[in-house]
Automatic annotation (TrEMBL):
A single BP term in Gene Ontology: alpha-glucan catabolic process
Higher taxonomy: Bacteria, Bacillati, Actinomycetota, Actinomycetes, Pseudonocardiales
Organism per entry: Kutzneria buriramensis
Protein's UniProt name: (1->4)-alpha-D-glucan 1-alpha-D-glucosylmutase
Domain Glycosyl hydrolase family 13 catalytic: 15-634
GO molecular function term, any single one: (1,4)-alpha-D-glucan 1-alpha-D-glucosylmutase activity
Top-level taxon in the UniProt lineage: Bacteria
Coiled coil: none
Entries under SUPFAM superfamilies matching the protein: (Trans)glycosidases
Xref: InterPro entries: GH (IPR017853), GH13_cat_dom (IPR006047), Maltooligo_trehalose_synth_4 (IPR013797), Trehalose_TreY (IPR012767)
SMART domains membership: Aamy
Pfam families: Alpha-amylase
Length: 731
């Protein structure tokens, strides 16, 4: 079943199956949601707050309530007329707590003779399995307790018959070797998820492994599946075809990050992506190209440098594994090839152009590409393609996008921060292509991975309409940070998420600085710099004079940010695709990157506000965010109750002096959505004046306000007098 819309719920210690069934599901039904879209629900590492570290794919999470509670939730959703979409993780399992993962524990105990050894991508030719957990004390603190090898909080099993002697002697008899944690980036013999050694990749391309990892979740009969990180798989297309055969009726979307202009491989039997491509287009629509800040240098050059650094350092183990497959020894050629991919990966034989582009500048890389093309399903081609996506993610998303901070509203995965905004013409072309090619893809504005929530980006978009450089320069002179680009990021973050607590801002900036890896990092911390960054938020927030100036600036752009937020929401919810609402974002939500964006959601508040709206309340656009809830529920209910309205797509151009400030489109013949662009510029030019929006003849009603639309060419000053958005339906 293709849902009319989805609502993402982050399950974890504060949200289990019973709470979702009793409290959340009825609210979602009233909101107008088509399906609850759940984060991973299988057994995960004890205490997991996200579920992506699955430790036992054969069982549902006991911490979330267990199998019966999951069944009762799904039954309740069906009674309410809603579906269930589940996030699944085919690429890896969690091994942070070895004893919690029965497959990994068995492999540690029995080595390559384990019945589960073939489930993991381990290079046994290089000796025992390397486990990078040791600190600088080496094996000094190793001990044997209750038949296990113990290192601080880490426990490891003993192979049969290996007891006796010192703990160090026992360790030497095992099928694994505990090594220093830094070894992971240079010398590892199991495949992992990116550079996270506590997530071990599984060989889901093996039919037996596919069956073992998918049997449980496929038995639930869910309506849809969200596939995490398909680019890590050896053969994403083959996996998706096997999944389609196993779940022929399911709506399937993939967490595939598309570059600008890139499309999914046509051979993948899926509805589309999880929506980052749509996020870029919608957000860009509300950015004024005339307000582009000074150029911060070539983003492409920076990205390439960061990708080279990622391949050379944190992913060197993967580079060496690829190099070992070559008939010549040239790790630098491997690094060059991986860092020059223009997209995350190719899918040979599809995507040959991307591979040839990556290889073009280096003669040895050309030879590697020839070997790959000669055997597109061989181990060399597979490992290069799996690793290129890792290099892109770690080099661009997790490094360059924390350094290139001239305008951070654009720094989302799948985006191009060097492209300042999206024109209406580009937006309409993208929507028409989506409606024609992937009308049931997911669309999103916020996710559990976005670096900034939709409302933070919407407020930051307003900076393109005002002078931010002058106050930024003044503030920076008073309160600089140890690194220039971090300073720029910090002030935009403070403005975009204001008001924000010192703790939240401190944690965010600490993470951002370590991801940027310019003056400190996760691997090589700089205590002096870290201390200065930690002190900055309270120093700034405690300066009453400075904060009065910041607050006044934020107050000036806040109405424009609200207008942009409502415009984004309407365009996403009414446009082509299946829209997802990330938990809590039906009200204003000024969250930053994970884990900030997994904070608990106040559903009781949302229920109370929705009840008032159902009683006829048309809220003001104010700090409560109730106006956003109004827009959200009106569109979601219409999509659910009258799906026939949401077909086709064509631009509806406004006419008049302020036409450039309106973005309107029709879905079919009887629905037109319109929103306001660049509201500060609109006000400065004198408002809508006599700008009109021509509509086909008939009786039209704005379903957001319930008011009739006055004529066949209504004045936008009338149509948008109460809210900066309208959704007109012809009776």
């Amino acid at each position: 079943m293709i849902p009319s819309s989805t609502y993402r719920i982050q399950f974890g210690p504060g949200m289990g199956f019973t709470q979702a069934k009793d409290s959340v599901a009825p609210y979602l039904q009233r909101l107008g949601v088509g399906a609850l879209y759940a984060s991973p629900l299988l057994q995960a590492t004890p205490g997991s707050t996200h579920g992506y570290d699955v430790t036992d794919p054969t069982s549902v999470s006991a911490g979330l309530g267990g199998a019966l509670a999951r069944q009762l939730l799904q039954r309740r959703l069906a009674e309410l007329g809603m579906g269930l979409v589940v996030d699944i993780v085919p690429n890896h399992v969690g091994i942070a707590v070895p004893q919690a993962n029965p497959w990994w524990w068995d492999v540690l105990r029995y080595g390559r003779e384990s019945v589960h050894a073939a489930k993991f991508d381990i290079d046994w030719s290089r000796g025992p399995l390397l486990v990078p957990v040791l600190g600088d004390d080496g094996l000094d603190d190793l001990r044997v307790e209750h038949g296990d090898l113990v290192y601080y909080e880490h426990m490891f099993p003993l192979a049969p018959g290996t007891e006796g002697g010192t703990p160090q002697e026992v360790h030497e008899r095992q099928h694994y070797r505990l090594v220093h944690w830094r070894t992971a980036n240079t010398d590892l013999n199991y495949r992992r998820f990116f550079d996270i050694t506590t997530l071990a990749a599984v060989r889901v391309e093996d039919p037996d492994v596919f069956e073992a990892t998918h049997r449980e979740v496929l038995s639930w009969g869910v309506d849809g599946l969200r596939i995490d990180h398909p680019d890590g798989l050896s053969d994403p297309g083959g996996y998706l075809r096997r999944l389609r055969d196993a779940a022929p009726e399911a709506w399937i979307v993939v967490e595939k990050i598309l570059g600008v202009g890139e499309s999914l491989p046509v051979s993948w039997p899926v509805a589309g992506t999880t929506g980052y491509d749509g996020l870029r287009e919608v957000c860009g629509l509300f950015i004024d190209p005339a307000g582009e800040p000074p150029n911060a240098g070539s983003l492409q050059y920076l990205e390439n440098r960061c990708k080279v650094a990622a391949a050379r350092t944190m992913l060197r183990a993967e580079v060496r594994r690829i190099n070992a497959l070559l008939p010549f020894d040239d790790e630098e050629a491997v690094i060059e090839l991986l860092s020059m991919f223009p997209v995350y990966r190719s899918y040979l034989p599809e995507g040959r152009e991307a591979l040839e582009h990556a290889a073009a500048a280096n003669p040895q890389a050309v030879e590697i590409a020839k070997l790959m093309l000669a055997d597109p399903h061989g181990e060399l081609a597979t490992r290069v393609q799996q690793t290129s996506g890792m290099v892109m993610a770690k080099g661009v998303e997790d490094t360059a996008f924390y350094r290139y901070n001239r305008f951070v509203a654009l720094n989302e995965v799948g985006g191009d921060p060097s492209r300042f905004g999206v024109s209406p013409a580009e937006f309409h072309a993208a929507m028409q292509a989506r409606e024609a090619g992937s009308p049931t893809t997911m669309t999103a504005l916020s996710t559990h991975d976005t670096k900034r929530s939709e409302d933070v980006r919407a407020r930051l978009a307003a900076l393109s309409e005002v002078d931010f450089e002058t106050p930024f320069g003044r503030w920076t002179e008073r309160k600089p940070l140890p690194e220039r680009s971090l300073t720029r990021l910090a002030w935009q973050t403070l403005v975009g998420a204001f008001p924000i607590s010192g703790d939240r801002l401190r944690d965010y900036l600490a993470k951002a600085a370590k991801e940027a890896k310019l003056v400190t990092s996760w691997v090589d911390a700089n205590p002096e710099v870290d201390k200065a960054i930690e002190a900055w938020p309270e120093d700034v927030l405690g300066d009453a004079t400075l904060m009065a100036e910041v607050a006044a600036f934020v107050a000036r752009i806040t109405p424009a940010g609200w207008s942009n937020s409502l415009g984004q929401k309407l365009v996403q919810l009414a446009g082509p695709g299946v829209p997802d609402v990330y938990q809590g974002t039906e009200l204003w939500d000024f969250s930053l990157v994970d884990p900030d964006n997994r904070r608990p959601v106040d559903f009781e508040l949302r229920k109370a506000l929705l009840a008032r709206i159902d009683d006829g309340w048309l809220p003001e656009i104010d700090a409560t965010g109730a106006a956003k809830l109004l827009v959200t529920t009106r569109v979601l209910r219409l999509r659910r109750d009258r799906p026939e309205l949401f077909t086709g797509y064509r631009p509806v151009p406004a006419q008049g002096p302020a036409a450039a400030h309106a973005l309107a489109f029709a879905r079919g013949e009887n629905l037109v959505a319109v929103c306001t662009r660049l509201p500060i510029g609109l006000d400065a030019a004198g408002g809508w004046r006599d700008t009109v929006l021509p509509l086909p003849a008939g009786e039209w009603t704005d379903v957001i306000t319930g008011r009739p639309v006055s004529s066949d060419a209504p004045l936008l000053s009338d149509l948008l007098s109460q809210y900066p958005v309208a959704l007109a339906v012809r009776s």
